Amino acid sequence: MNKEPVNRELFDDVMVPNYAPGTIIPVRGEGSRVWDQEGREFIDLQGGIAVSCLGHSHPGLVGALQEQSEKIWHLSNVMTNEPALRLAKTLCDLTFAERVFFANSGSEANEAAFKLARRYSWEHFGPEKHEIISFRNAFHGRTLFTVSVGGQAKYLEGFEPGPGGIHHAEFNDLETVKKLISKEKTCAVVIEPIQGESGVVPADPEFLKGLRQLCDDNNALLIFDEVQSGMGRTGHLYAYQMYDVVPDILTSAKGLGGGFPISAMLTTASIATSLGVGTHGSTYGGNALACAVAQKVVDTVSQPDILKGINKRSGHLRKGMMDIGERYGVFSEVRGAGLLLGCVLTEKWQGKAKEFLNAGLEEGVMVLVAGADVVRLAPSLIIPDADIDEALVRFEAAVKKLVA
């Protein structure tokens, strides 16, 4: 066994430098608290970036993993497995969907969605109808296709040329979509109901309703990227249910596995037929271990009491952060839905979101950023009120030092 010390310096020696992690290395978690190598305790308002929806070491998830680990870990897609079938049936029962494709990450789910949209249009309308409309500042993943569809040039820089046939409209501006969409060329419009990485910006309800109508009028598919907004994050199982706008394709990941890698693409039976045998695949997609854990996540999060509690916790956390923002002049608003919140920095503090993250760590509370101007919060959906209270105390201490 390698006895070399495991510390932040080792990262620079052995890892590709595409990340810049902090010096803290957590080694244990329970509920909404984690402990680092030195035994320091932190309250987790990051949630693994909206992934650890039931916190750390949730007994139900641990039990599901242990139970399945003694049966079947992995087969292949030459055959199916019971956990995958049960999970797919559950997702269909709880959503608009009639068919499910499993993969391992949000990027892969979105890749599948974009391929399906093009394939569907190719089969029904011909090869000219292949264009995809997305939105500026969107984020849909890190594959070459998904960074091209995402509306942030920095993620494509140095990897060009990307796939063609992709256009970007302005978020919450239907007129810009009308200028780009056409019955002859547009195969799909893809949108995050709440833009996550660019600042936790919710879509206007009327804007999404308008997109649905435009897609219907132009024989285009509407794709909702719910990688971050899904699995209870907004207080609904999926955000489309909050908006009452039904997409043709929906992608889910992050919270779906509660920390175990899994993603899903959900769609209708008629659209799904376009991905016939051999058209797409994933070696690990539908992995029995992942599906068994995700089944427990879905069964838990979909309970009415859990979903109701998310909005209660949201109000508690939102008010606490806004109070801090007003006392110290650091936040102009707290936006978002459920437990996906963005604390927008005032003009004086714009560009300094990372300073709030670092100051929070010094006081024992973990927060996120969403761009340079927004402090993002995405804690466990079942975080106890006592942990919210303590997190607010610690974050206020961090802000007090920062503004001194």
From TrEMBL:
Catalytic activity: N(2)-acetyl-L-ornithine + 2-oxoglutarate = N-acetyl-L-glutamate 5-semialdehyde + L-glutamate
GO terms for biological process, alphabetical: L-arginine biosynthetic process
The organism's taxonomic lineage, starting at the top: Bacteria, Pseudomonadati, Pseudomonadota, Gammaproteobacteria, Pseudomonadales
Keywords: Amino-acid biosynthesis, Aminotransferase, Arginine biosynthesis, Cytoplasm, Pyridoxal phosphate, Transferase
Pfam families: Aminotran_3
Listed name of the protein: Acetylornithine aminotransferase
Residue positions binding N(2)-acetyl-L-ornithine: R142, S282
Quaternary structure and interacting proteins, as annotated: Homodimer.
